[in-house]
Amino acid sequence: MKIVIAGGSGLIGRKLAAILEGRGHDVVAASPSTGVDTLTGAGLAEALSGADAVVDVTNSPSFADEAVMSFFSVSTRNLLAAAKAAGVAHHVALSVVGADRLPESGYFRAKLAQERMIAEAGTGYSIVRATQFFEFLGAVAGSSAAEDGLHLSTGGMQPMAADDVALALADGAEQGPVNGIVEIGGPDRGTLAGFVGRWMHAVGDRRAVIESAEARYFGTRLDAGSLVPGAGARLMPTRLDDWLAAQAPTGVA
């Protein structure tokens, strides 16, 4: 298969390209650095020519409400139009678990709008909703910092490794359109405070952890199920402790 990865130079895009190339596919890692820009449309027609599937793992450079909505609206519209013109049969998009449950978040509203655009485009599609990545637990910690420590939500969470996200996307691209939503997550469920606390311990961060149901996750209040996949989700194998151990030689980013 010829598979185009929009956002191919990012964390997930690079891992996905390596998996698909290892399986013998013709992979185009499309990004502005390779002359393909989903915001302007530059290079899209050439990249998508003859493609069997496109996997969209692009992300907004800004998470401000208006900026992130503009990014996903414009980028997705251009990618859908170019894919349709090229006759691409399968549009795969990476989204987030909880996109339909956290309307206070501008980012989650933008991802939900992206999902709807893809579902209404009239072509074969698969939307893969993933839980938070282990790789971003540090960013979650940073966003929660205050003078007295980290104020972390007791809301539910089931994070996963970026390698497992890429693996699930590769499988989805190969298997063809489901014309719906697939959820993926990590093997273990806990609280956001618990997972971030374990990450902090592993990297030697000794700041106080202040757990609270009122603590915000990038401005949004969580409940027990906000960031947890539902029944029927595909649970990937990598556990946080194993992932942390694998980062030890070079340090956790």
Number of helices: 8
Strand content: 15-25%
Query: Distance between the terminal alpha carbons, to the nearest Å?
Result: 34 Å
Low-confidence stretches: none
What assembly state would you assign to the polypeptide chains in this entry? single chain
Binned, the helix content reads 25-40%
Mean pLDDT: 95
Q: Order of strands across the biggest sheet? A: 2-1-3-4-5-9-14
Form type: globular
Protein model, in words:
With 253 residues, the protein is α/β, with parallel strands linked by helices. It has eight helices and 14 strands. It has helices spanning 11-22, 44-48, 65-86, 106-119, 137-143, 162-175, 192-203, 240-247, and strands spanning 2-6, 26-30, 53-56, 90-96, 125-130, 145-146, 149-153, 156-157, 180-185, 190-191, 209-212, 216-217, 220-221, 234-235. The strands form four sheets. It has a seven-stranded parallel sheet with strand order 2-1-3-4-5-9-14, with helices on both faces. Strand 6 (145-146) and strand 7 (149-153) form a beta hairpin.
What layout of secondary structure does this protein have?
Blueprint: E1 2-6, H1 11-22, E2 26-30, H2 44-48, E3 53-56, H3 65-86, E4 90-96, H4 106-119, E5 125-130, H5 137-143, E6 145-146, E7 149-153, E8 156-157, H6 162-175, E9 180-185, E10 190-191, H7 192-203, E11 209-212, E12 216-217, E13 220-221, E14 234-235, H8 240-247
Parallel strand pairs: 1-2, 1-3, 3-4, 4-5, 5-9, 7-11, 9-14
Antiparallel strand pairs: 6-7, 8-10, 12-13
Give me some keywords for this one.
253 residues; alpha/beta; seven-stranded parallel β-sheet; 8 helices; 14 strands; 21% strand
